[in-house]
């Protein structure tokens, strides 16, 4: 039986059918208008609609609708189109974020604007509506949307601000808070050793990689041996560790910033690669910035300085998908080579995970304890996300029992090399797990950029530049089930869970080298060659025997929603469908949590395709030998959607 299409718009406190909304009288000027179609648009449909009516079709609203800025004449013509189901004005009340606080003054706001706005005119209009200290930021040149920052002393004028024709969305400016070297070895294999780990032992220490450290407050001290250079200790292209350092005037050195940067890539100047507390990617370089503007601007700045991996060990007060999350998703989608890592909220902190970690395309990281208790939960809020129910955190990395760089306690400046456990912040925290995951991402990226794939040996003719989706897929594919969640989390036992996500990073489960029991297959597809609506593509892998579990991971960097108007930020959906040599099928994320392995597909018992998460897994404990068919279906695709497929097991 064919499922009936749901035409309700998922915006506002309750979904509603726009057909039931009175179209209203046509008025002069361009208005925010919701255009809903009868079905998903094909590529030719999009081309025709853009040419015929000047539609932009970049602000998607579930279901089957887009937010446009149209004048009265265009609205009348659009309503008559055979593909259009409804065309109604957007109620200005729906432009106001539900998490705007009811008290507190002044109220700081971020106001997202339409792309064709005139900065001077909107500044005047917002001021007339009652806004103060209006600053318009034109982010179009970096691929984002223009915004205005302003304050209100009187909340009663909020409806006037929302009613401004140039305004798309109004939300509060949220303050950020911190989420509070054996760990470096544990992300490689799950154990520690006297010398290094199995990934380091292959010559992968982060060479040629750059990690962007974005902190909400505080900076690092270049006098510390982990970050210093000699004889010229000035950040720049020739500095051995710090390519760029940007901090607000008067910013002080902080333990949080020092510790995070040290975990990711700290390395002693005079004893390189040998300090016991060196970072997980100790040979990588860093870009450091204290938060001082929009996240998308800071990410682009880090990219321009050479970084491809970006760490955020902090979050904001409210758990909603806000501009911070949109910035992370937008940057990741537009710049496919990049990975943004975010910390899960602390367990004894807020009730839900927070932006930027809850963004669709961000790798959200919880904290595991240190070796030999690395299978135990350490810190982090369980998911899912509020209110849309996506799986976060994604995975776990060691965030407890770590020693790293510490600030100089001496009253006078000078070279020093102080390391140890945190003195001010908690010894166990997601803030420390995130840079460990960022370091793992750097090692995984180096594996491809230095030509280790597919032979497992470093060869210049195998060099490839992976997408961020591929790096995330490798880390997720490498995960192992956390067995020590403790009695306090009995309701979250099983695998995967809302507490551990897909488990703890263990790179040697996925990155293969000569002699490895597990072999690796990847298929990295960029957006330009990605899936289109209803397209299907199939890849085959050959399994040699059933001695190793077969793990298939699909990740895609999803199209960002332009605003948080709707409650479901997921947009493009790819269905993962796997068939074994005997004809048994498995669907992505249809996993029996009691065993941790995929269920053979059966219509009566299957949970069906997961259209909410852009991470999909099929895990088979004892895969039969032979050819496996891995099919990807573009069930709901707008434009073209790239993806990364990672398979590990006893492959031929």
Can you give a write-up of this model?
This protein has 652 residues and is an alpha+beta fold. The protein is 16% helix and 24% strand. It contains 10 helices and 30 strands. The strands form 8 sheets. Strands 10, 11, 12, 13, 15, 16, 17 and 18 form an 8-stranded mixed β-sheet that branches. A 4-stranded antiparallel β-sheet has the order 2-3-1-4. A 4-stranded antiparallel β-sheet has the order 6-7-5-8. The longest helix is centred in the C-terminal third of the chain and has 20 residues, at 430-449. The protein is globular and about 70 Å long. The mean pLDDT is 91.
Write a brief structural summary.
This protein is 16% helix and 24% strand. It is α+β, with helices and mostly antiparallel strands.
Continuous helix count: 10
> Which whole number gives the mean pLDDT?
91
Tell me about the largest β-sheet. Answer: 8 strands, mixed
Number of strands: 30
Which residue ranges are poorly predicted, with pLDDT under 50 across at least 5 consecutive positions? none
Beta-strand level of the residues, as a percent range?
A: 15-25%
Which structural class should the secondary elements be placed in? alpha+beta
Shape: globular
Can you give the helix content as a percent range?
10-25%
Query: Over the alpha carbons, how many angstroms does the gyration radius reach?
Result: 25 Å
Ends: how far apart?
A: 41 Å
């Amino acid at each position: 039986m064919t499922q009936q299409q749901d035409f309700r718009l998922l915006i506002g406190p309750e979904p509603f059918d726009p057909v039931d909304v009175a179209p209203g009288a046509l008025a002069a000027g361009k208005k925010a208008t919701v255009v809903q179609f009868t079905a998903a648009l094909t590529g030719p449909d999009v081309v025709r609609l853009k040419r015929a009516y000047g539609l932009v079709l970049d602000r998607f609203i579930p279901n089957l609708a887009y937010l446009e800025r149209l004048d009265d004449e265009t609205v009348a013509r659009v309503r008559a189109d055979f593909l259009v189901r409804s065309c109604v004005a957007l109620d200005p009340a729906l432009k106001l974020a539900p998490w705007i606080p009811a008290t507190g003054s002044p109220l700081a706001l971020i106001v997202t604007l339409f792309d064709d706005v005139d900065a001077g005119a909107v500044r005047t209009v917002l001021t007339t509506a009652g806004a103060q200290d209006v600053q318009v930021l034109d982010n179009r040149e970096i691929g984002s949307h223009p915004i205005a920052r302003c304050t209100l002393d009187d909340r009663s004028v909020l409806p006037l601000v929302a009613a401004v024709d140039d305004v798309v969305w109004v939300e509060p400016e949220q303050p950020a808070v911190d989420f509070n070297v054996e760990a470096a070895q544990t992300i490689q294999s799950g154990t520690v050793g006297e010398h290094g780990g199995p990934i380091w032992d292959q010559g992968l220490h982060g060479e040629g990689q750059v990690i962007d450290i974005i902190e909400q407050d505080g900076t690092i001290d270049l006098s510390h041996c982990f970050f210093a250079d000699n004889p010229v200790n000035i950040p720049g292209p020739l500095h051995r560790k710090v390519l760029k350092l940007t901090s607000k005037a008067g910013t002080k050195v902080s333990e949080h910033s020092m510790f995070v940067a040290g975990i990711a890539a700290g390395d002693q100047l005079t004893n390189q690669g040998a300090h016991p507390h060196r970072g997980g990617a100790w040979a990588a370089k860093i870009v450091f910035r204290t938060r001082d503007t929009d996240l998308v601007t800071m990410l682009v700045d880090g990219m321009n300085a050479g970084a491809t991996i970006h760490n955020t060990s902090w979050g904001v007060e409210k758990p909603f998908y806000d501009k911070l999350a949109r910035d992370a998703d937008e940057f990741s989608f537009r710049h496919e080579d990049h990975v943004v890592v975010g910390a899960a909220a602390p367990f004894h902190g807020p009730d839900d995970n927070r932006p930027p970690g809850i963004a669709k395309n961000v790798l959200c990281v919880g904290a595991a304890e240190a070796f030999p208790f690395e299978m135990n939960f350490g810190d982090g809020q369980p998911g899912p996300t509020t209110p849309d129910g996506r799986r976060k955190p994604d995975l776990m990395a060691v965030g407890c029992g770590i020693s790293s760089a510490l600030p100089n306690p001496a009253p006078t400046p000078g070279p020093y090399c102080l390391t140890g456990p945190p003195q001010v912040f908690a010894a166990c925290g997601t803030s420390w797990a995130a840079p460990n995951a960022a370091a793992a991402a750097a090692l995984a990226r180096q594996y491809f950029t230095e030509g280790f794939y597919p032979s497992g040996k470093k060869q210049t003719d195998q060099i490839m530049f992976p997408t961020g989706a591929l790096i995330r897929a490798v880390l997720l594919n490498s995960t192992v089930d956390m067995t020590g969640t403790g009695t306090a989390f009995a309701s979250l036992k099983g695998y995967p869970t809302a507490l551990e996500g897909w488990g703890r990073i263990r790179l040697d489960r996925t990155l293969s080298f000569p002699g490895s029991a597990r072999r690796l297959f990847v298929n990295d597809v960029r957006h330009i060659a990605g899936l289109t609506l209803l397209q299907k593509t199939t890849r085959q892998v050959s399994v040699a025997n059933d001695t190793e579990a077969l793990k298939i991971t699909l990740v895609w960097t999803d199209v960002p929603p332009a605003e948080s108007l709707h409650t479901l930020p997921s947009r493009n959906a790819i269905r993962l469908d796997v068939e074994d040599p005997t004809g048994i099928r498995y669907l992505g994320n249809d996993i029996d949590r009691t065993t941790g392995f995929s269920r053979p597909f059966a219509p009566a018992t299957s949970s069906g395709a997961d259209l909410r998460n852009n991470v999909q897994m099929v895990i088979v404990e004892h895969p039969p030998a032979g050819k496996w068919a891995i099919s990807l279906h573009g069930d709901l695709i707008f434009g073209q959607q790239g993806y990364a497929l990672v398979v590990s097991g006893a492959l031929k």
